[in-house]
Structures are given as structure tokens and as C-alpha cells.
Amino acid sequence: LSLSLPLSTPLSHSPIFLSILSKRSLRHRQHLEKDRRVKNVLDQEGFGRQKRGYRSIDEIYIKMTDPLFSKQWYLINTGQADGTPGLDLNVAEAWGLGYTGRGITIAIMDDGIDYLHPDLASNYNAEASFDFSSNDPYPYPRYTNDWFNSHGTRCAGEVSAAANNNICGVGVAYNSKVAGIRMLDQPFMTDIIEASSISHMPQVIDIYSASWGPTDDGKTVDGPRELTLQAMADGVNKGRGGKGSIYVWASGDGGSYDDCNCDGYASSMWTISINSAINDGRTALYDESCSSTLASTFSNGRKRNPEAGVATTDLYGNCTLRHSGTSAAAPEAAGVFALALEANPNLTWRDMQHLSVLTSKRNQLHDEVHQWRRNGVGLEFNHLFGYGVLDAGSMVKMAKEWKTVPERFHCVAGSLQDVHKIQSGGKLILTISTDSCHGKDNFVRYLEHVQAVVTVNGSRRGDLNINMTSPMGTKSILLSCRPRDDDAKVGFDKWPFMTTHTWGEDPRGTWVLEVGFQGDEPQRGALKEWTLMLHGTQSAPYIDQIVRNYQSKLAMSKKEELEEELDEAVERSLKSLLSKN
């Protein structure tokens, strides 16, 4: 019951508002009605209200009957397997908004898919599938005693395992369609097999997920050949009706011995390179770091708890808790991107990269080697995790309102072709000053990708270290030392080292390249070329807003620092006076 009082009622004589939450007796009601101060007595009925954009985790759990769902900590992390609660892909929010990947097809380019698996069969897209190893339309994995060819089936389950069927777990985009492209299971790879796989049915397939690449042995430098490069270029320019195929790539499993900028697939501008974290926010021991990684998802790692792995489908109708590696990370990202595409089917391949940069979050990720930093426009990044862990809820909400990014331009900012010697104990420092093609049609004002095309060799390639600093002061580690790389002949020949860390920055000004050797043994080498390639747009309104917000935060933090310094100075003065007196 609520009491409503006439405005003339003196405040000192009357109760202003009374709520009775439980049903009262008729005697209480009659008592209130007889009180001359009470204008009206109304019975109040309870009804539901919900916070906008909020979804209870318990609601999601109630709906999911799949036995492994509670163990899929990367979907909803409540602290399973000694993990960190809240450290997940935030799919609950995206699902709560109604996005489950419906209408989107993801291709798993791998060793095949067990498309008869009861958790995959209903979402299998046979039309978009093909076996390039056997040259037939049935990409079923080849049997081996050790189940070696379970890789693709496990990746497929992460993306498109059906929900509420009492089988295994749930895919990130559990209403999406999954296609199998079998292309890994042969003694060797060829350019034509890779190119055919990457360009298979680009008007039907929306997202291609690749959890493979050159050997992660810490001494290989390799990337796509001519036909595959052309296929990828055609994909981003012509796929999906001109919006561009979306290529998701695992960063690599070479750990601290390798650098994913030596992998030409993961470091390509046309791919979204994904790294991983384990369920407590640390890096997995096999994670490679590099400046081309855009964002991260999750895999297993240092924990011995058997439930700390990635739960998904396995061969012959089975389930597993032990999927791992950055192989597990890339399909999770593909699933998140499928949710975003359902929210906005008009997203281009570049839109997806912008959304990844803007909505990925540091969350509770921590890197014991590389600090989190902010670039010149205030975007926070890490050398290993990129711009942070993908956030499905934030991405679908931003995707719904997203306007396609402006046209992309390319500017050759400058090139140094002279031979410069490099020796141990010192650094070679070179600079290129650029107006980023200002005044020309291909002027680049807001950066997306930056490439340093470098030709360099040394008496030991693995000891080479290359850093590049932008005019706005952002330092990118283009190449870390690789202790297993003993090459003394080949070096890097016009190799395009790529960074995403300067995203949104103004490229005009002086760029600085530092090249040196690290290690105990003296080395020598020579840099023969450095060409700076800038890729980006001439307008990006959201960057201006980010800069304003960042500057505002900086001004506030500086004000707080000054106030703290003033307080400390006053305190010191008072202590000095007191000691004298």
C-alpha cells in the first residue's frame, strides 16, 4: 500500500510515503482509509523490471543442457579449474542480446571435420565444404591410431557445436554453420592447395579460421607464396559480395623461442592474428609475441588441472577437455566474429579489425615480460596480447551501430637503400621523415597497419633485434631475438615486418628504426633496405573522440599528480617547521 498526500498537507504532520511489501490485513487498510491525512489507498501489485543490457549468468546456465558447458570457462568464467572469474569472452551478453551466429558460415581449414558428430551434424554446411587433400567433397579426417587428425574437429566444435542437445559443450556461435576444408593432411603443402582452400566459395563462406602456419621451431622464416597471396588479396577485395572474406589466424606456438612476425600468414594485414591466454590471465608458455597480433582469446597452458583445457568436440562422436594451443584461440575468435556479423552483416573485413581494436579489453590479462602501454591516441595494447581479449558483448553492441570505415589508402613513406653495417655492442639507428603523402590522393592521416620492409642479414640471424618508433612515440618490437635461429646466409629479404600498435595515429613526422644484436657472442651484419609502408584512412571520427577522452584523462591524472605533489610539499614543510620548533 502507498500513501499519497495532498500538497497542502504539512510535512511535519504526515508520513510522506509508505510501502508495504507484504499483504496486510483488512484491519490495516481500514485504519489507513479512516485517517484524515490519507487521500487515497491503492493496492500495489509486483511486476518485473530488468537492467538494460544486463543478463544473469544463471539464466544462461539454466538454458544450456550440454554436459561440458559448465567446464567451458572461456565462455563464462566463474573460477572453474582455479581460473579468474570474469576472465572470458563475454559471450553471455551477446547471447542475451539474441546473437548466436545464425546465418553465418565459418570454414575450418584444417585436417578435416567429423561432420557425422552429433554435436556438429545439424550445423554442418556440406555445400561449402571440400577435401583438397583427396579432391572430393567429403572432408572427413583420415583415421590414425593416435587420433592425430582430430585437430579440425576440435576447432569446429569451439565455433559451431549445437546448444541444448545434451552432447559435449556449446560453440561460441552455436547457431552458425561450419564448413570443413581438409587441406593439411598430406606429406607436404603446395601453393595451389593453400590458394584453393583460402579461396573456396568466398560468396558462401564468411569467415576462414586457420590454426596452422610455418613450422614453429624458432628458426623458420616463411609465409604465403604467390598464388596464396593472390587468393588472399582477392578474398579481402571480392569475397562476401565485395565486403571481404575474414581470415582468422593463430599467432603461433613457438613460445619465447620464436617471433610471429617471422610468420607471413599471422603477420599479414589481410588476416586477424589471434594469440591466447590461460584461464587465470597469464600467457601460455607456447605463446609467441609480435607487433602484428591484433587481439587474444583463450587456450590452456601452465595449469595441470585437467579441466583447464578447452572443452570441445572430438573424433567419432567423442568430447574432450584437452584442446590447446593458439590452435584453440583462433576458432574462438572466429565464433565471436560470427556473432558480430549476425548483428551487422554489412561489416567489411576492415570493419572487423577496427571493432577488434576498439572493443578488446585488457580485462585481467597480465604479461610478465611486456608491459601494457598506450599508443599516441590512447589505445591500450600489449606486445603479446595485442589490444586485449575479445569481448563478444561489446563487439555486437558496437557492430549494430557501426558505419563502414572510410576508404583505405597506401603510402610509401620513404625508403633507404644504402648498406649500413651492424655490429655487436652498438645499435644502428636510421630515420625516415614523412608527410605521409600529404596533398596527394593516397594521403594517410589515420593509421591502420604499418609495414617496415627490411632486407638485412647477420652472422647469426637469431640475435637480431629490430624496433621501430612512430612520430607519436609508440615503440613497436618488430623482431625479437630467436635463440634457435643460427642462419648466417639468408637473413631477411624484403621481409614485411608489420605492426598494429600505432593504430589510429597520425603518421606524419620522423620514424626511427633501431637494429642491433643481442647475445653473448659478438656478431656482425648489414641492413641493405628499409622501406616504410603506411596503410590507413583520411578520416576516422571515432579516433578524434578517443583522443579527446585520452587527453581529458591525462589532464585529470596530471592534476591529481600535482595535487599529490603539493600535499607532499606542504607535509614536508610542516614536518620541517615542527622539527625546528
Give the arrangement of secondary structure elements:
Layout: E1 2-4, H1 26-34, E2 40-42, H2 57-63, H3 91-96, E3 105-110, E4 130-131, H4 151-160, E5 177-182, H5 191-198, E6 207-210, H6 226-238, E7 246-250, E8 271-277, E9 295-298, E10 310-313, E11 319-323, H7 326-343, H8 349-359, E12 373-374, E13 380-381, H9 392-401, E14 409-416, E15 420-423, E16 427-434, E17 446-458, E18 464-469, E19 475-479, E20 492-499, E21 509-517, E22 524-537, H10 541-580
Parallel strand pairs: 3-5, 3-6, 4-5, 6-7, 7-8, 8-9
Antiparallel strand pairs: 1-2, 10-11, 12-13, 14-22, 15-22, 16-21, 17-20, 17-22, 18-19, 18-21
Active site: 110 (charge relay system), 151 (charge relay system), 327 (charge relay system)
Protein name: Neuroendocrine convertase 2
GO cellular component, one term: membrane
The total of helices stands at 10
* Uncertain segments: 1-24, 47-62
Fold-level CATH name of the largest domain: Rossmann fold
Strand fraction equals 15-25%
Annotated CATH architecture of the largest domain: 3-Layer(aba) Sandwich
Overall geometry: globular
CATH class of the largest domain: Alpha Beta
The span between the termini is: 67 Å
Helix percentage: 10-25%
Task: Give the total of domains.
Answer: 4
- Class by alpha and beta content: alpha/beta
Question: How many strands, what sense, and barrel or not for the largest sheet?
Answer: 7 strands, parallel
Radius of gyration: 29 Å
Overall mean pLDDT stands at: 89
Number of strands: 22
